[in-house]
Amino acid sequence: MSTQNEIVIVGASFAGLGAAHYFLKHILPLLKSQGDGKYHVTLVDSSSHFYFRVGSPRSMVSKQMIPDSKLFLPIADGFKQYSTSDFTFIQATATDWDPNSRTITISLAHTGKSKTLNYHALILATGTRTATPLTSLHGDHTTSQQALDEMNSALLTAQSIIIGGGGPSGVETAGEIGHQLNGYAGWFRARPSNPKARITLYSGSDKMLPMLRPAASRQAETYLAKVGVDVVHGVKVVGSEARGDGQTVVRFANGEESAVDVYVPSVGVTPNTGFVPQGLKNERGYVKTNAKTLRVDEAGPRVYAIGDVGSYTRGGVMDIYDAVPVVMTNVKADLMAGSSVTDEKARAKVQDRLYEPNLKETQIVPVGRSKGVGAVFGWKLPSFMVWLIKGRDYMVAQAQVMVNGTKWEKESKWTPRDG
């Protein structure tokens, strides 16, 4: 009887879904054709549904524009196309990882019971979480759905709002809230004539959108003013506390405080690495990843990290799209070469595919429902193109593409370099 080799993927957001579909579509058929052992993929995630968080800024203000059905999609449904003998999805949270015994311990969502998974290969794709379930999963998807519901309700009567953070999420959120509550100023006005709410974004730096050129940041600030959003630079939000009267007290690094009806934190992220041994994490808590091969070299053979959880990346969905073919090419090479000592010579002949980060200016940021700033590969995009690409619906159709694996229908071709 042939041995079953378990491929465990922890995390089922953009990176984990990409890795799972890529393996099942392009690597598993090749391994089956070799006939030496069985392979099975187990995908683990704490949520039963994928959250297309890209669309959260608009859903935050109106679920009529982007309903739950477009943002939250059942993960299992996307894998019905594969045989159950090849794939299993488990809703669970990883609680422990022992690289020496090559096991992952998970806590099952519905029972709380622990289960230990042995792995032949392990792909870590647990990503990061934001400070609020509005913009990332905090356990099951229902937590984020409830947070969006509560924000929709709170904005109906809110008169004072603070957004903490001047990255793309903060700018997009401020723009959506401003447009929803204050409307958009006409051609000859810098600000709405009769704003409903006082909205302030604290960038915490000397400019917004640090990955874009200064001119884009200034333009975004102009667009925010058009929807009644004030921008304050040089003041950083350091904390908040809900009061009994429904308001939230926001604390700043300069010692000042402000009580507002609604506070949306968009400051920083935390890697989901609580289960990872301390020695395999860097000083910021990210998995120490080979920046070229995307292997976790210190964790033993056939262990990889992809997406925001890895130390190699600046983060973001576009970076994940670039990384999936790289890491999966190396997964395929490692599995094809074998794992025993006698296979070292065979492994040495296999050339690694190397990850090359795209460091060119690339970011697309809608500001309200009709404007935006951005650049792709260093080329500035006009506001209309930002709206066309992302601003009109926040690309929600891509959610189904990710869950179903259509994004990875074709294998990424790569030719090893000579020498």
Automatic annotation (TrEMBL):
<dbReference type="InterPro" id="IPR036188">
    <property type="entry name" value="FAD/NAD-bd_sf"/>
</dbReference>
<dbReference type="Pfam" id="PF07992">
    <property type="entry name" value="Pyr_redox_2"/>
</dbReference>
<feature type="transmembrane region" description="Helical">
    <location>
        <begin position="7"/>
        <end position="24"/>
    </location>
</feature>
<dbReference type="GO" id="GO:0004174">
    <property type="term" value="F:electron-transferring-flavoprotein dehydrogenase activity"/>
</dbReference>
<keyword id="KW-1133">Transmembrane helix</keyword>
<keyword id="KW-0812">Transmembrane</keyword>
<dbReference type="InterPro" id="IPR023753">
    <property type="entry name" value="FAD/NAD-binding_dom"/>
</dbReference>
<feature type="domain" description="FAD/NAD(P)-binding">
    <location>
        <begin position="6"/>
        <end position="323"/>
    </location>
</feature>
<keyword id="KW-0472">Membrane</keyword>
<protein>
    <submittedName>
        <fullName>FAD/NAD(P)-binding domain-containing protein</fullName>
    </submittedName>
</protein>
<comment type="similarity">
    <text>Belongs to the FAD-dependent oxidoreductase family.</text>
</comment>
<keyword id="KW-0274">FAD</keyword>
<dbReference type="GO" id="GO:0005737">
    <property type="term" value="C:cytoplasm"/>
</dbReference>
<keyword id="KW-0560">Oxidoreductase</keyword>
<dbReference type="GO" id="GO:0050660">
    <property type="term" value="F:flavin adenine dinucleotide binding"/>
</dbReference>
<keyword id="KW-0285">Flavoprotein</keyword>
